[in-house]
Amino acid sequence: MEFEFRDNVILFERELSDLDKFVIKFVEILDKNKINYVLVSGYVAILFGRSRETEDVDVIVENLPFEKFGLLWESLEKEFECLNTSSSKEAYYGFLLEKTAVRFAYCGQFIPNMEIKFPKKEFESETLKNRLIVKGKGYSLNISNLEKQIAFKLFLGSEKDLEDARHLWNIFKENLDKSLIVEKAKELNVAEDIISLVLE
Amino acid sequence: MKYSKEELEEYKSENFKERLKFIDSYANWLKKTPNKEWSKQQNKLLSR
User: Fold this and answer.
1) Residues in chain A where the model's pLDDT stays below 70
2) What φ, ψ does residue A9 adopt, rounded to 5°?
3) How far is it, in rounded angstroms, from Cα A127 to Cα A117?
4) What would the pLDDT profile of A9-66 be if each residue is shown by its tens digit?
5) How far apart are CA B31 and CA B37, in angstroms?
6) pTM confidence score
7) Interface test with A, best of B38, B39, B44 (most A CBs within 10 A)
8) CA-CA distance, A169 to A14, in Å (whole number)?
9) Chain B residues lying within 8 Å of A1, measured CB to CB
10) How far, in Å, CA of A112 to CA of A23, rounded?
């Protein structure tokens, strides 16, 4: 695997999957609408080679006023549809402001879908601020800081999450600060035996 | 009960450790394989 870490940028080329193309198309619309976002969770591991599928891609977007969300909705509805509701007002006031995610898929499809939410907890706001940028030919993706991503996966704790954490750790261990992962995991009350099992 | 709780927990734990070993060996393969090659193989899995 070839990649290059430069501060907060990872230069990385790969043969794009249909899932990657779906994500890129969606985040290009976020970028056009000047919306700060960060991709989190399983997709980050899959982007860097994890051998599993996913039905949804989690993305945290900055808190938006309704006017800006309405413009995003208009841009999205040419190719995507919201799976929760056909009303932008309900999506915003009934879901996003209530700290519930809304999902967007290609029109007429259900999977894959982008699960977007506003930051609920401080660590989600931090993730949005301290993101990394993955750059390749024709794409640029904001992903979560990898130490935090691994710590968060340890916190989520399902076998799938722990395997994602192990995968990211295996791929990036030469570029990451293990003590920072441990510190973040401890902040999230992850048990010591889980931390040492996955980061051994 | 045919199996004790401890036996079943141990079975699950061993199974998970096996999975982690597979993830390690796969990551080792990824690290020495060009992006073009591994991503092509991964795409076959993702496009099934």
Assistant:
1) none
2) -120, 135
3) 13
4) 999 999 999 999 999 999 999 999 999 999 998 999 999 999 999 999 999 999 999 9
5) 11
6) 0.94
7) B39
8) 19
9) 30-31, 33-35, 38
10) 9
